[in-house]
Amino acid sequence: MRAVRRRLLETGLEVTVPILVLVAWGLASAQSETYYFPPLTDILSTFADTWLFERVGSDVVPSLVRMGLGFGIAVVAAIATGLLLGMSRRSRRAAAPIVEFLRAIPPPALLPFAILVIGVGDSMKVFIIAFVCVWPILLNTIDGVMGVDPTLRETARVYGIGGRDRLWRVMLPAAGPQIFAGMRTSLSLALILMVISEMVASTNGIGYFVLQSQRTFAIPEMWSGILLLGILGYTLNGAFVLIERRVLRWHRGARASALS
Amino acid sequence: MTTLARSAAGRTKRLAIGVPDSILPWVSVVGVLALFDILPRIGLLPRDHFPPITETLGTLGEQLGEASFWEAVGNTLQGWALGLGIAAGLAIPIGIVIGSSSLLYRATRGLIEFLRPIPSVALIPLAILIYGTGLQSKVFLAAFAAFWQLLVATLYGVQDVDPVATDTARSFGFSRRQRLFRVTLPSAVPYIATGLRIASAVSLILTVTAELVIGSAGLGRSINVARSGGNEELMYALILSTGILGVLLNGIFVRGERRVLRWHPSQRAGERRA
Amino acid sequence: MLKVDHLGKTYGEGDDAVEAIGDLDFEVGENEFVCIVGPSGCGKTTLLKCMSGLLAPTRGQVRLHDDRIDGPPERMALVFQEYGRSLFPWMSVRQNVAFPLRRKRLAKADAAKLVERAVESVDLTGFLDRYPWELSGGMQQRVAIARALAYQPEILLMDEPFASVDAQTRADLEDLILAVRRQYGVTVVFVTHDIDESVYLGDRIVVLTPAPTQVQETLDVDLPPTRDQLETKENPEFARLRAHVYRSIKRKQTHAEPERAPDDQPAAARP
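^ Those are the sequences you sent over. The predicted structure of the assembly is below.
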């Protein structure tokens, strides 16, 4: 019985603690005199005014589109390249120094380069998001392909599974779990770079809005933007986990039975 | 080294056609460098956007003698170190405490899961407001971002302790505190080491980001200044140096991580498989 | 039908060289069930990998219908010991069994029929749409066998396929493989370390020496072709064969140096 009681207590805590924190924040800030930390109620009402649904079209949509395009391009390019590199030792050797170098450059340092060469428009933002998001997925794909169980490979060889079937029906699914792990990382990178690129060179977008609000001292608006970004990060991550869970159902099942 | 580099550093083999394996990486490096040197020179790449690599490297060499360059590097390193240090000083103890108590973990889990995905860059305007445009802003942002990485890594490490090991310790009469220091922590160290490596990279990225966006002194700002001043070679040279700095810092942590992981069974199993 | 022709395999070079297989020479006739048995570490798996074309021999060759085996031949299938790792976890039973058939470019209906027939012969018809992790070890191995059968090979190689299941399941699987072999008319080369199993299943037994492996002896199994777990094992001939094989294996293990026939000269190492 003690185990059950304990489980209930834990679940209860899990639900109530965040609520308590919110309430505490609300109370603490209600009497706040500080300029920088307006009352929570102010922030929430500004949030409703701004993002439901006033500025969705003008700022949220462009941001999400840039992010989506950049991420999508990265996924396709990284998986394709990763599969090929994963299967060929020679091309891995040839590509290794270039890949290692390019991915070591801290993304913000690339922004001025992108601005110089591409300009300050949407293509620059999509480029920088795509460029940075490629690396985690690429490396994970390569890892995934290289880590395919040798018995599985031999099975494929014994039954003469060649070329395209081998790539799409063996290597890709086998590397799936790793690929998804890389995509998870890249997703949060995409959000970060979307924000940075909009703060540095943009005329619309959530990132732009947050910085602009700060510059014009519209503090509750600034906070509402930060809140939105937090919600966005949380929701995107949650949605991704749900998708991952569905696509990789087989993997969880296989791992669970392997451990038991 | 990542798996990519490690696999490439395999045994030398000579293949039936063309280039021996060991030379392959150099061939591609030289090839790419040559490409980016020749193409701008013959005009296939716009020279004002893509100065020839050799000129960029020359500028980089010059910079190594400039005090302003080293000042920028020092500023960036300062921000990185403080950010990482503060993050580690907070995240590791907190992570150990929370990770060791399932009650605490459940209580704080919702909070962590919500705060974690907040892109730290979203707080840039807040940082500007509170701390201005100097070192403090930079450190705040770097620390905030690195903190979550380390916290999650520490939590994972503490929780991933082999229950058989702790049970064995308990059956030998080890107190809770002893179990913590003699079983849990050593087992968690590899995860913390990996977390430190990632947190270091994150701290560097946020530091440079702050310099770029806010304009704090450091490499990020210098890069931007070079670009807006039309000095493309300097810009590229500085981007290169930032990359090199990243590689060096990463290398330190990788080596440290490897030494720590040497005794860990997961690493040994990896060697067997490779 | 299948000839192992003075096969030799050495791993590594120079001082680190390990001679797994010294000189193996034997034949497998059409429709035979040949069991290969030997002590642990005698290169049984290496032998099977060379026979299936997965590994290139250092010396000698393997010939199927007089054609040298260079890579996995189309008419041959292989069932691995680690069934868990040889089934594709993201495919259902049906998809796993059907997968090798893609190479044969059959009409969809024909392929489906082959799959169903194979799965039925291993008694897993109700599990066509399940995934490997949902099945027990014995069932997974049956899927692997069904996959090999649907492929309609001429010759089926099996690498200690029942070593990783419990004794009860092993008995069932042994009877299963005898039944499907009769049903599909396929030649089987069955590697095992279990002496009882080798006598129970085989028409002929090849006994191997420890590394560097050679053929210790070959014996015919003079038991009635219809095997039964109870009757056959009560047969005095079974006990005699069993003891003979056991002594044969044990004998080699006590000798320091394996005997070599005088005309045995390892060929020059292949590049």
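Residues 38-252 of chain A form a domain with the MetI-like fold fold (CATH 1.10.3720.10). Residues 18 and 244 of chain A are 26 Å apart (CA to CA).

Shout if you want it in another format.
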